[in-house]
Amino acid sequence: MRFDYDLIVIGGGAAGLVAATGGASLGAKTALIEKNKLGGDCTWYGCVPSKALLKSAGVYALTKRLKEFGISTPQENKYDPSGIMPHVRDIIQKISSHHPPEAFEKRGIKVLFGVPRFIDNKTLEINGEKITAKRFIICTGSHPLVPPIEGLKNINYLTNETIFDLETLPKSLAILGGGPIGIEMAQSLARIGVEVSVIEMMDRILFREDKETAGILTDSLIKDSAKIYTGKKAVKFSKEGDLVAVTLEDNNKEMSVIRAQTVLVAIGRAPNVEGLDLEKAGVKYSKKGIEADATLKTSVDTIYTAGDVVGPYQFSHMAEYQAVIAIGNALFPFKRKVDYCCVPWCTFTEPELAHLGLTEEEARAQYREIKVFKSKYSENDRAVTDLEENGFAKVICDKKGRILGAHIVGINAGELIHEYVLAKTARLKIGSLSSAIHIYPTLTQTVKRTADQYYTALLESGLFKLFSKIMLRFLR
User: Which DSSP string corresponds to 68-95?
Assistant: First the structure.
């Protein structure tokens, strides 16, 4: 059988762009199919606009701290945040221009726009035409998960796909979900004047994070005037004039009501598996996404997958990581397996909250003996000069000094966590970070200080003290 392409990549988000570029670079005749716009959810509705909004809100909040930095003004300055959302949309357009279709066409990638459907495991139909390929990689991403709660469909709720289109921000907003998306939106909008209420059914926000680090962030959100309702779930939405009434139920089945101008649904994301006719290709899937093995091969030998549609992590950096694995496995006989032992992520609030590996609670449950080393931002000279003393770095190790997890809450945590990521990936012990020279004064000293504590504990142990006394006698 003659094929139109060696490889067809379905989905033009983070995973799809990497997979298509990799396929073409390896000499495969490649087509990339996207139903909407190249760049995916992260560019248009996720990482890019949310970080632009967080930055603007952070700058706005910083103007209120001028006196803390020794800056006085002859009169009280007033600032208007109404231009923030247009600014966010400008940033989206700027970054989306980094990957126009023409750039991929120049690399030899055929870019097709439309809704594809499988005819069989070698054939797709798109825009009324049939195309074939030896291999496929499905990278269709995900979409906001909207729960079937009474009355929700009857209100004009927002998701991350619609909130950045607002011309006028609401006076008040109820956010359904205390995960990363909900919390980032909560802080940024609270800082620019929106009355924010966060509703989380778990007993705390960011329940996947280390409890101690999440507590620091919770305090910061409250300081920014966000109201947080934990241990409560929304069971009903109804209109009350210009407001939305949200009925909450706690663990004891007791009811309460909060009101806001509108609602942002941010409880998670669902994989984009509908409309592809995956059944005709023999690809197994469920509501959780496409089923795949450790090589990212689906139930069909010629079809691979990557990104949010397969999970288990819905981050752009993980989509890119999986795409690299998938493209090699799809085109070559030797196979690589995904390795999720060193997956980092970050919630980009102020303070930032970065995560790697096991939390302290998880480590204590899995290991008989662990060691926990912490270094406070308030003990870091650069953090003190920058008035960014809120936070700490924590690293959890086994008894031999191997890193089990690391968590940082504080300014630039998302940057600092990578020292721990590199050490854990390279299977280095925590002591290796202590022996590396770190520039003074930088925030990276916080990472080094956690590693220094490993040696301090070692030197203060009875065995080393005895050894030291013996050696000192010889010196005399």
Answer: GGT---SS-----GGGHHHHHHHHHHHH
- Written as one letter, the residue type at 152 is L
For residue 352, give the 3-state DSSP assignment: strand
Confidence (pTM)? 0.94
Closest listed residue to residue 360, CA positions, set 253, 138, 211, 160: 211
Contact 403, 420 (CB under 8 A): yes
Cα maximum dimension of the chain: 91
Give which of 156, 349, 110, 153 is closest to 260, Cα–Cα: 156
Give the residue from 273, 41, 264 showing the smallest Cα distance to 163: 264
B/e letters for 85-99, b = 16+ CB within 10 Å, e = fewer, are beebeebbeebeeeb
User: How many other CB atoms sit within 10 Å of the CB of residue 440?
Assistant: 10
Averaged confidence pLDDT in the chain: 95
Query: Could you give the CA distance from residue 124 to residue 122 in angstroms, rounded to a whole number?
Result: 7
What's the confidence (pLDDT) of residue 461? 67
- CB distance 107 to 24 below 8 Å: yes
> Looking at residue 155, what DSSP letter applies?
S
Q: Which residues contact 211 (CB under 8 A, 6 or more apart)?
A: 204, 359, 360, 361
Alpha carbon distance 329, 455 (integer Å): 42
DSSP reduced 3-state for 449: helix
Please list, in sequence order, all residues whose beta carbon lies within 8 angstroms of the beta carbon of residue 463, skipping any fewer than 6 positions away. Answer: none
In order of their start, the domains of the chain are 5-39+99-143+270-331 (3.50.50.60), 152-268 (3.50.50.60), 344-462 (3.30.390.30)
**Tell me, what's the pLDDT at 465?**
63
pLDDT in tens, 23-52: 999 999 999 999 999 999 999 999 999 999
